[in-house]
Amino acid sequence: MPERPSRARLLVGGAVALTLTCSGLVAGSSASAEPVTTGGDLGRALAPAAEELPTPFEEAGGSEWTTFEESVAFYRELTTASQRVSVRTIGRSVERRPLQLVAVGEPGPKSQQEAAEGSVAFFVCSVHGDEPSGRESCMALARDLALSTDAAVADFLEGTTVLFINANPDGWVADTRQNAQDVDVNRDYLALETPEARAVVDVIREWEPDILNDLHEYGPREYYETDLLHLWPRNRNVDDELRDLAQEMSAEHAAGRVTAEGYTAGVYGQLVKDGEPFLQVAGDDQGRILRNYAGLVNVVGMLSETANEPLDEAEEADESLLNRRRVEVNYLSALGSLELVQQDPQRVAAATAAAAERQTTAGAEQSGVLYFGGQDDMIPTDPDLVEPEPMCGYQLDDDQVRSLGRTLARHGIEVTRTEDGDRVVELAQPTRGLIPLLLDERSQYRLTEATPLATC
């Protein structure tokens, strides 16, 4: 195993605190040693709140995970403890458990219209039910934001609404990756066959978040064993400038916050030896995966994955130490992504708005290239995976409209009717990069094979 920082964790008032005795990076770390922040250190401002309302996981010192029922009770208690928090059910899982959206704002939770006047950050917490650290870190972060008395936190929340969703309660209870339909929800953001994916997409469409961090865990192995693996949208239909900002959030802010606290970070899917990546084993362009879907709908999105098995002898000897590290790393990644917004909220909001406008213009002008394969670091070599002369839209027949109309609307895609009565999905929409992945015969995960139109 690589040499790692020497660390000791203390339990303070039932909450987990981290004391560093040495810091540094291992070979292959991809982030700078200091997170990029301005306007005060949000992490230090949040720290005191951890002592006031410990999560069940924290009370157990990391030896037991919070149950679904305990999380419902915890969030209920948090709404009583702070006027900043609201919890509402926005859907039901396959087994009818509530899909709860937790919102935090100052002086209280904002409406969608009010939130749109500022910034919105969205955290998807453990969409895989057997990856518990994401939902634990979301509970702790929501609590810390809600209960902090620091002026920097209040100032931040006046302009930024922070949203959390536990996106797979049935998998949580069953301790399975999939939901109760045996579907991997993180492969369902195109077809929207699961109520869990539909709830996440509804939040994205209705709240229009500026940033999104999807919190996961991964299984480490040789050449692939850092505390955090992170990744941005890689689908080639994502707006270039938006993707660059997402990569910055992922590598400089999220991973930067993690490494600044003495942990290690790397790029998801890349095996690394002697500090250099030599093989890519995951992290592709699939639009049905949330980090890619986020980019396709003009959200600055990313993926966070923390190692779910021991990375040193201390963690091998103490499972609670391992569990606390898993939660701490996802917490720090989430915190780092918030610090991108804290640094310059106008920049982030302008980037998402500009990306949507550029996509709409490209669709109207039939400019650029559309891709059905490849990713940001790989140009497709198969001519069937590219369209250098984009269509203006797609025509749908009556059966396609009946079967897909509601799904397209959930994606924020408009279906129009021509003077001749035809139903058309034009590419002159902010979702220009997403539409062909849903409707074109060349797309691997298409929902149907619609008729491409040269003119609209």
Automatic annotation (TrEMBL):
Cofactor(s) recorded in Swiss-Prot or TrEMBL: Zn(2+)
GO CC annotations, alphabetized: extracellular space
Keyword Hydrolase: yes
Pfam families: Peptidase_M14 (PF00246)
InterPro entries the UniProt entry points to: Peptidase_M14
Gene Ontology BP terms: proteolysis
Keyword terms: Carboxypeptidase, Hydrolase, Metalloprotease, Protease, Signal, Zinc
Endpoints of the signal sequence: 1-33
Residues covered by the Peptidase M14 domain: 64-303
GO molecular function, one term: zinc ion binding
Family membership noted in the UniProt record: Belongs to the peptidase M14 family.
Name listed for the protein in its UniProt record: Carboxypeptidase
Protein's organism: Desertihabitans brevis
